[in-house]
């Protein structure tokens, strides 16, 4: 079997809601279905390039997260990291599942509120928040804020203590701990090492507590001021494909929680971040990846608290008094979406250098040029089927004026012709949300499918002339 066919077989098995027929059947728009909608409908309705999303695929992943968490913790929550994809239709759909949302800017706060999320189900993470941003969120009744810096923590605590009487509710603050661990992923996606801008080092927190308590005349005043600090947050990186490090991460979190209890704080909320990676072939239809991820964290947590009697007393032996949350982004949305683009023309510079020019570019689908990410791609509609056995190692490139503008640096695909249609998979996370108007190109179109029907089409326009 050729490499291409092996990939297709794998692709079929791994991606719920996508049905890619054999290569020889991919003409007339009937060789590819997204949640039973044929490609021909999509091509009729939209301009290319286009992102097509199955909302059911997203709901299913959220529900697997929720069910997995329910197996281990009485009190739990999911905050979908909307930076992965903030399309309003997706947000509204996720809101319907009962999940919350993780935001990193006031723009995301407003989009989440606009999509209907209750402020109590919103968690404001994010390094370098502006004061005006967290004040707007606090006054809007936000449920959770993850604090990334000790000055930020101090400012927010001061604000809460002086404004608490006029606020309808106080947020739960969590300390974002930098556990100083090395993870295997792209360097831009690591967030929990000593050289990372994210989070607070444990020893900095300890020093800060010891110094700042001297500013208070009584222990009670200090405890009252500090009381909104009720949680610990940790997120060590994204697109994590191995999990050996998590035991160490949990140990650091427990050490910090133990210290907090010793200092009369009450950390009853653990936010264990996102990070679960998505393989090249897409996600498992049974959600086994999520189930294993949650099981691993949960068993490590319950086993490792045995080292701390005080934690077991406060949280319960099975953490029944603790609220445990995760903030997944990529693993929820990546495999729900394909990026579809059309072939413009081809060029063969030498026996090794084969270029396929498509109408999508790095501004529409930026992960390959930003992270050298390899997304599986397939021809999903041929103008005419001929000589499928002739394959080339194509460099798939877009119209942007940069050599870094490529969608794939090496795609083994048959001979390609003008108007053939190519799909890139796992395009639901950090693709449309990172798209931009570089070269004054318009943003790609978007189509959303639910229960086998197209429910929304967005055909974006050219950016306005300033
Ligand atoms: N929580 C925090 C604090 C985060 O910084 C992130 C992602 C998440 C949760 C969600 O992580 P996920 O489950 O999606 O791995 N643009 C990059 C990814 C950047 C991730 C940023 N933070 C990419 O395209 O790979």
UniProtKB/TrEMBL annotation:
Part of which pathway?
Amino-acid biosynthesis; L-lysine biosynthesis via DAP pathway; L-lysine from DL-2,6-diaminopimelate: step 1/1
Q: InterPro entries, alphabetically? A: Ala_racemase/Decarboxylase_C, DAP_deCOOHase_LysA, De-COase2_N, De-COase2_pyr-phos_BS, Orn/DAP/Arg_de-COase, PLP-binding_barrel
User: Active site annotated at which positions?
Assistant: 401
The Orn/DAP/Arg decarboxylase 2 N-terminal domain covers 57-334
> Which cofactors are named for this entry?
pyridoxal 5'-phosphate
Matching entries from Pfam families are given as:
Orn_Arg_deC_N
Its domain of life reads Bacteria
Q: Keywords, A to Z?
A: Amino-acid biosynthesis, Decarboxylase, Lyase, Lysine biosynthesis, Pyridoxal phosphate
GO BP annotations, alphabetical order: lysine biosynthetic process via diaminopimelate
Q: Which SUPFAM superfamilies match?
A: Alanine racemase C-terminal domain-like (SSF50621), PLP-binding barrel (SSF51419)
What are the protein's GO molecular function terms?
Answer: diaminopimelate decarboxylase activity
Record's catalysed reaction(s) = meso-2,6-diaminopimelate + H(+) = L-lysine + CO2
For the modification N6-(pyridoxal phosphate)lysine, the affected residues are 83
Full protein name: Diaminopimelate decarboxylase
Source organism of this protein record: Fluviispira sanaruensis
């Amino acid at each position: 079997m050729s490499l291409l066919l092996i990939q297709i077989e794998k692709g079929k098995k791994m991606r719920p809601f996508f049905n890619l027929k054999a290569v020889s059947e991919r003409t007339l728009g009937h060789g590819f279905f997204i949640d039973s909608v044929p490609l021909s409908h999509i091509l009729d309705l939209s301009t290319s390039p286009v992102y097509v999303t199955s909302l059911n695929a997203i709901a299913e992943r959220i529900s697997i997260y929720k069910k997995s968490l329910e197996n281990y913790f009485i009190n739990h929550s999911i905050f979908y990291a909307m930076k992965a994809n903030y399309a309003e239709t997706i947000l509204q759909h996720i809101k319907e599942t009962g999940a919350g949302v993780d935001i990193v800017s006031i723009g995301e706060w407003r989009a989440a509120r606009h999509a209907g999320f209750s402020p109590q189900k919103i968690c404001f993470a994010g390094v370098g928040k502006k004061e005006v941003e967290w004040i707007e969120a606090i006054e809007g009744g936000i449920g959770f804020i993850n604090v990334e810096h000790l000055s930020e923590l101090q400012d927010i605590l001061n604000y809460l203590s002086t404004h608490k009487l006029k606020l309808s509710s106080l947020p739960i603050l969590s300390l974002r701990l930098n556990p100083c661990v090395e993870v295997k992923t792209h360097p831009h996606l690591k967030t929990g090492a000593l050289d990372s801008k994210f989070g607070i080092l444990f020893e900095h927190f300890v020093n800060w507590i010891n110094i700042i308590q001297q500013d208070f005349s009584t222990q009670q005043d200090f405890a009252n001021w500090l009381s909104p600090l009720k949680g610990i947050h940790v997120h060590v990186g994204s697109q994590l494909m191995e999990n050996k490090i998590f035991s160490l991460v949990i140990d650091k979190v427990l050490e910090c929680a133990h210290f907090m209890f010793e200092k009369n704080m009450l950390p009853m909320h653990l936010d264990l971040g996102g990070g679960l990676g998505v393989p090249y072939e897409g996600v498992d239809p049974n959600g086994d990846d999520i189930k294993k991820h949650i099981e691993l964290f949960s068993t490590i947590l319950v086993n490792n608290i045995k080292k701390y009697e005080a934690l077991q007393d406060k949280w319960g032996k099975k953490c029944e008094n603790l609220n445990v949350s995760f903030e997944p982004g990529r693993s929820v949305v990546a495999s729900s979406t394909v990026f579809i683009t059309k072939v413009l023309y081809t060029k063969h510079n030498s026996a090794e250098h084969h270029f396929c020019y498509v109408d999508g570019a790095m501004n529409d689908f930026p992960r390959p040029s930003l992270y050298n990410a390899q997304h599986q791609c397939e021809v999903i509609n041929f103008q005419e089927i001929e000589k499928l056995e002739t394959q080339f190692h194509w460099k798939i490139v877009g119209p942007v004026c940069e050599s870094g503008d490529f969608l794939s640096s090496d795609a083994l695909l048959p001979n390609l012709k003008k108007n053939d249609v190519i799909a890139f998979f796992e395009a639901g996370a950090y693709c449309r949300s990172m798209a931009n108007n570089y070269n004054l190109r318009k943003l790609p179109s978007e189509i959303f499918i639910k229960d086998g029907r197209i429910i929304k089409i967005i055909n974006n326009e050219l950016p306005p002339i300033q």
